[in-house]
Structures
1.
Amino acid sequence: MTALSSTLSQDDRDAIASAIATIETHLPFLIDLVTEERAALPKMGDKTRAFVEKAYEVGATNPDFLPRWFDVDEMRKDLELFQDLNRISMTLTQLQDLIDDTCMLAGSEAYTAALTVYNSAKTNGMKTKGMEAIVQEMGERFRKSNKVSASSEKK
């Protein structure tokens, strides 16, 4: 596994925040659905996409049989928006996966380093004035998790 040795400068953090704000600015119509709304909507996936595209072609070339209230142009706009947002979503999903994996590795490396510090402090630092209280404080992280797992095992 690759070791990670990177940082983000304040300029980089600011630029990333600005880029995200720019994306949000260019998507002012984004909607935040609640769980019930998401569940109630018919979903368009890979199989459904071909059906929708074919239905649009049929409706656009044969508008005479459609109900008067049906707006083919609105269907085209919805389909194009779906296609555009789906491309953006796939790109952002890939980026999110990379960020998640890198965050996990950075956290793992930081935690592993913290364990080394803690174990070294327990083993070698107890002779240093005031270190015992610090080691005990750091050790609370392990005592709490042991109490929780011990109590859940009794149930």
2.
Amino acid sequence: MTSTALGAGTALGEALKTAGQSVAVAESSTGGLIAASLLAVPGASAYFKGGTVIYTAQARIELLKGDREEVRALRKDRARLAGYFARRARELLDATWGISELGIAGPTGSPYGDPAGRSWIAVDGPVSRTRQIETGDADREANMWRFTESALELLAECLREASA
């Protein structure tokens, strides 16, 4: 685990515990790294409700109990789709916050024409935000970590805004 992700996960864990809040994760190309970063903190059960890797269309429908037609309609608007998945994760696990990531780690692009190094991250909760990440890199592992770090940064921003 990169020290940046571990540090962000530790800080987020402490902030969530202090606030008495919880988080649920639905991630795709990060393959569980967001959840792992949050779970690396001792006492994570106080705030981590659960997570899933929604790498395939089938997983997105079955694990998030998504509406097949709604998911299909949102497929072209990745930012809104990421927001939908963050909301579903939050709702299904009754968490304060939901966070999702949908991306193309590489080394090749997606069948939909997106290049490697592109990801959409969403947070849903008291403050909701979506962000698109462009690394310009086709290195799969590097992108997975950069997407993870960006997702943790976005959650931290939302937590700070909600507590302000």
3.
Amino acid sequence: MWILQWLPDWIFYAIFFVGLLGLLATYVMKFIPLVNVYRTPIQAISILAIAIGTYMSGAISNEESWQAKVKEMEAKVAAAEIESQKENVKIVEKIVKKTEYITRRGQDIIQYVDKEVAKYDDRFRPGGQCELPKEFIKAINNASEAPK
């Protein structure tokens, strides 16, 4: 409620007790002329003050309970963020390892293919025709497969 943000809590408790005192005064002090003359309006205002004080006391209690739940959820979110950061580090480490493996595997394939190409390279032979034998294609395919 917006009024709870503007007014301190003790005001609503004071309204309740003033209403209670006003209602009690109309029954106890019947012999005082001022109280006896305005007895009905004082009782009505006192009952209204008691109702407002009771209602606002409940609103204060409800607001406090919601604020406690908000704080609890904020703590859970903070814990989840910390856990998320830990998991992110694990994921990054896995990605780095996989990237390193792929890079290393690619370099191994390049070295293997270069070694095999040197065996079958006809650039320096007369005629210069380079036909790739089946063994060469098989070697390249074997180089690109995952290690067993």
4.
Amino acid sequence: MSIAEGLAPVFGDFPRVLVLGSFPGPKSLGTGQYYGNPRNQFWKIIACLLGIPESLPYDQRTKELRCAGIALWDVIQSCERDGAMDNRIRNARVNDIAAVLEQYPSIQMIGINGGTGGKYFFGAWPGGFPGVPAVVLPSTSPANARMTLEEKVGAWHCITEGVQTLQSSPQSTNDDR
């Protein structure tokens, strides 16, 4: 089994919310797109919360996310994994989240997509980061079938609080719009 590298981060000028997955699955790595598995509910949840249609091309969806003040990345930078299941992740190396928070002081919240991401995040930073709450959200993976889409949307609603703050802020004008 070889070491797989994750995807490049998706950041706009003034992100307010950083959404961290654990590590992209094979379909996402193959397409070079976050949440590239059509059965993953991430883009459905974003459509419900922010009105960004999941039918838009990927580059347009990520542009809309950046404009809304949401950044995408993963907790894990590289790892070995046989298949798509997070419980098969081995020899994980985490991304430098501290450096990102230093580079983007506009980030006011971290939303972690699922328990595995939370495990690696809080394993690397047990106390989190002062002044930047980190919340573990229900996984959008198709493997998380114990919650309905509506329940996941309800739980993920907390990320829109940071977005609303950005939209009323003078920093919200950027070239991504």
